[in-house]
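I am sending you the entry underneath: sequence plus fold tokens. Let me know what the token row says about the fold:
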Amino acid sequence: MKGITIGASIVGLALVGVGVVMAVTNPGQAAYDDYATAQLTEYLEENACSKAPSFLENLLQAQCAELLEDNQDEIKQLISESTERQNFLILSIYKTNLSVSSLLPTYEFETVGIFRDFYTYKARQQ
């Protein structure tokens, strides 16, 4: 009986320890903004910038990449204003709804922040 009590106490302490570590390493909004800006920039460079017609490809790709690089602060602000954070103490869920204009598609992203890292588990175009 004593062994079960000691074992249960050890498991309980371990769970509390993991919970404390998760709470301390729960990334904040600023870290998410940095992560999402990097992800969006990479996506646009690989997908939007590379869709230029072949005779303009090199010129437009260079300008597109430069435009993205020069506007990192604006991209980050757009993401920050378009994101709702749900903080559950041990992890956070970020829901981003990007809509630049009514002429362009809207994108929705859901990301979990845990242990100082981010994992996007949902991305869809509307």
Remarks:
- The mean pLDDT is 88.
- The radius of gyration is 21 Å.
- The chain has four helices and four strands.
- The helical segments are 2-24, 29-47, 57-70, 72-81.
